Amino acid sequence: MVILSTPYTCGVLKMSFSFEFFLKPVLVFVVAYLSMRAMGKKAATEMSGIDLMMVMVLGTVVAEPITSSKLGTAFGYAAIFVALYVIYSYMELTNLFKRWITPTQTILIDEGKIMVKSLRKERVEVEQLLAQMRVAGYTDISDIARATLEQTGEISFIPTEKARPLQAGDMNISSTPTYMPIPIIIDGTIQKTNLAYINRDLNWLKAQLETYQLQIEDVNRIILATYNIRGLLDLYWKEQD
After folding, report:
1. What digits encode the pLDDT tens for the residues 58-91?
2. Is 182-237 assigned to CATH 3.30.240.20?
3. How far is residue 128's CA from residue 25's CA, in Å, rounded to a whole number?
4. How many other CB atoms are found less than 10 A from the CB of residue 14?
5. What letter would DSSP give residue 23?
6. 70 φ, ψ to 5°?
7. Please, what's the b/e burial string for 100-111 (b: 16 or more CB within 10 A of its CB; e: otherwise)?
């Protein structure tokens, strides 16, 4: 069977060639870019396990149209995965689901003692722990007051008093003491444990809120409230939609 070449068939072939080798890659790039934007900045910075998995799956899904003709199906899968990731991200922000789906911190070294059970639980080898210590500038385990495996997979180190960096007081230089504010309200939720830690109760919190002309029912308007060195409450408001 002989296929005659006509101006129409030539035009169709040119359009097909342009779509396969130019328009399709551009379309895939745009969809991948929009998907990453929908996932948020977190996916491009400090990745947790779910973030890394999502990027790998999304990369596989959006690359599928380049090697096949199932363009709509692949992009549909990409939209579903992005939607699932966004739902998961919002669940991480709620106290109801956070304790179940967010990894907790794990102490690997406590007062110069290696927590062997914690290493086995998190599948961290001693050599890996020592390597991270050297990267942080420490060579002796006895110099570490606490090493913690954070939620992002990084290991943070807090040195002992004798191993800490030189401070202003070591050189008899007077300085203002550093005080770490204690969160009392986080994203509209009262942190009752922290409230008890500073020996305060809800009546004290109500009195503090009244100085801002607020009632206890207005805590949902507060993104963060901290207990400062003066024994007062500093408020940070949620942005209005």
Report:
1. 777 766 665 666 666 666 777 777 777 778 777 7
2. yes
3. 41
4. 10
5. I
6. -85, 65
7. eeeeeebebbee
Domain segments of the chain: what residues? Answer: 7-97, 106-163, 182-237
User: Measured in whole angstroms, how far is the alpha carbon of residue 52 from the centre of its chain?
Assistant: 11
DSSP string, 149-175: E-TTS-EEEEE-TTTSPP-GGGGT---
| Tokens of residue 160, six digits | 């002992």
The percentage of residues in the chain with a pLDDT greater than 90, rounded to a whole number, is 15
72: Cα separation from own chain's centroid: 31
**Do 182-237 and 106-163 fall under one CATH topology?**
yes
Average pLDDT of the chain is 76
pLDDT tens for 25-67 read 666 667 666 766 665 555 444 566 667 777 777 777 766 665 6
Own/partner long-range contacts of 188-192 (Cβ < 8 Å, ≥24 apart): 188/219, 188/220, 188/221, 188/222, 188/223, 188/238, 189/95, 189/219, 190/219
Superfamily (CATH) of domain 106-163 = bsu07140 like domains (3.30.240.20)
How far is the C-alpha of 139 from the C-alpha of 39, rounded, in Å? Answer: 39
List CB contacts of 76: < 8 A, sequence separation 6 or more.
none
Closest CA to 153 of 181, 174, 123: 123
Q: Name beta bridge partners: 186.
A: 189, 224
